[in-house]
Design brief:
Distance between the termini: 65 Å
Pfam families: DUF87
InterPro entries: ATPase_Atu1862_pred, HerA-like, HerA_central, P-loop_NTPase
Strand order of the largest sheet: 2-1-11-10-9-3-8-7-4-6-5
Strand content: 5-15%
Organism: Rhizobium aquaticum
Helix content: 40-55%
Protein name: DNA helicase HerA-like ATPase
Mean pLDDT: 82
CATH superfamily of the largest domain: P-loop containing nucleotide triphosphate hydrolases
CATH topology of the largest domain: Rossmann fold
Number of helices: 21
Largest sheet: 11 strands, mixed
Shape: globular
């Protein structure tokens, strides 16, 4: 069935029609500087096609959540674990429900991880559920960067791989990518090259104008026209749009974003008796009681690589001979030194809520200071040690067969959740009360009790834990594979370890 949707008007007042069926087979790339009308274009496309095709929107700014009220899209909070997002993505494809993955509030690195997990969940769905889906990714240059930035290499590879799968291999799985970017030069070329339809809006940088002209098959001297486009005007080309470049003015939309472009407003007037300086500089009662929230600075990726390379480097030939003695450490002594370096890292103020990558850099520095020989500990092994330490297990329990089984079971969950799983397993093996939500959240590195409860649900979905309530009240976590369970515990109790800090 051929379905055309009205995207707006072309010169002469005719409707600009977009063939949805052709779009599903050939994909779409939208480009334009901030304020050119990209989000408005995407909203028009989503509104006009909502009754014809299932839609999934990757929304880094939370602009498209307003589609839920009028068109029934389910809003998915991106602040979830890998298992949760993959499970939701799978069910989205099974039940053919349109949704918006809202990544608002997450930092760039976590946005990339959440988008990568969700897109991979859509991509890996069973063949029985390969129904057509329009997958719209706003700010695509963030999720498919042309070069590495200040995010970890692991997050960049995850996100870029998911975007590549969407645009290069998604068609056979029913996934039709619609990607929008402010800068073509910042978007990975292998992702952009897979689109056969283009809507190019206003842009000013020479490199972006040149790439836009190349994609549209125009001569370089014609690229200057992209500077003259008005807001909401785009040059369209592609089998779903037009066989020749065509100027399109995008039509009106029925919903709107929660944010809007800034408008000029007069400054408020102040009464003559008001001391403006005193009004601004004197704190209110609310200011005095509000907790100070400071966002940790992003960790530059190259730092980890440099530290690792320094740790791998052999001593210079001119170094004094006594420094070579440290290379003859016994393996058990080396393990003890690694454990000591890790304990020093975790003893620093605020270490509980610092990112693993930042702790890892600190650990590499301390390992070099202690001249621990051998290759640097890989990040995955560091996280494994970190999870064991955060569980609070004692030496006697750590030597038991049950704990060895718990360590094997922990490999079935993602690296970031192994500490939480081992915390619960340790409590069950020792017959302690089930840890409260606050303790679970601390081990994960968050203050959110809501997320802590979601971790338990995730473990249950994986068949690792059975959570139930005791007759007298209190939560119990049972481990069928370990043949043990925790004592009843109050989920709302305070975290003793955090209070001690």
């Amino acid at each position: 069935m051929k379905v055309g949707i009205d995207m707006g008007t072309v010169s002469g007042g005719k409707s600009a029609m977009l063939d949805i069926e052709e779009l599903l087979a050939t994909r779409l790339l939208v480009q334009g500087n901030s304020g050119s009308g990209k989000s408005h274009l995407l909203r028009r496309l989503l509104e006009q096609s909502s009754q014809w095709v299932q839609q999934v929107i990757i929304d880094p700014e939370g602009d498209f959540v307003t589609l839920a009220d009028k068109y029934g899209h389910v809003v998915v909070d991106g602040e979830r674990t890998e298992g949760e997002l993959v499970g939701i993505a799978t069910r989205v494809r099974q039940h053919r429900v349109s949704c918006v993955l809202s990544l608002e509030g997450l930092d760039v690195e976590n946005q990339m991880r959440a988008a990568g997990w969700f897109l991979n969940g859509l991509f890996d769905a069973d063949r029985d559920y390969w129904y057509p889906v329009l997958v719209v990714v706003d700010e695509a240059q963030m999720f498919a960067p042309a070069v590495g930035g200040e995010v970890s290499d692991e997050a960049r590879k995850l996100s870029l791989g998911a975007m590549t799968n969407l645009m290069c291999r998604g068609r056979k799985r029913g996934l039709a990518g619609v990607i929008a970017t402010q800068r073509l030069a910042k978007l990975a070329k292998n992702v952009a090259a897979e689109a056969s339809n283009f809507l190019m809006g206003r842009t000013f940088l020479d490199i972006d104008m040149a790439r836009a002209a190349d994609l549209l098959g125009m001569e370089r001297r014609q690229a200057e026209m992209f500077r003259d486009l008005s807001r909401g005007s785009f040059v369209a080309l592609g089998p779903a749009l037009s066989r020749r470049p065509l100027n399109v003015t995008i039509g009106n939309v029925e919903t709107s974003a929660r944010s809007s472009s800034p408008k000029l407003m007069p400054l408020p007037g102040q009464a003559p008796e008001v001391d403006v300086e005193d009004l601004i500089l004197t704190p209110t009662e609310e200011d005095l009681t509000r907790p100070v929230m400071r966002r940790a600075p992003p960790t530059p990726k190259p730092a980890t690589d440099i530290l690792a390379e320094l740790a791998r480097a052999e001593p210079a030939a001119s170094e004094p001979q006594p420094r070579q003695a440290s290379l003859d450490l016994d393996p058990s002594e080396r393990e003890d030194k690694l454990d000591l370096a890790l304990s020093e890292v975790l003893s620093q103020p605020g270490a509980t809520f610092r990112p693993d990558a930042e702790l890892y850099q600190d650990f590499l520095v301390r390992a070099r200071i202690r001249r621990i020989p051998g290759p640097p500990l890989p990040l995955a092994d560091f996280r494994r040690r970190l999870a064991i330490v955060r569980s609070g297990v004692d030496e006697e329990t750590a030597g038991s067969e049950q704990w060895a089984s718990a360590l094997e079971l922990a490999r079935r969950v993602t690296d970031d959740l192994q500490g939480v799983f081992l915390l619960l397993a340790k409590a069950a093996i020792q017959g302690e009360a089930c840890p409260p939500d606050a303790s679970i959240a601390r081990v994960y590195g968050t203050h959110s009790a809501r997320r802590a409860r979601r971790f338990l649900s995730y473990f249950e979905e994986q068949g690792l834990v059975v959570v139930h309530t005791a007759h007298g009240g209190g939560r119990i976590a049972a481990f069928p594979d370990l043949d043990c369970e925790t004592a009843p515990g109050n989920p709302d109790a305070a975290d003793v370890a955090q209070a001690a800090e």
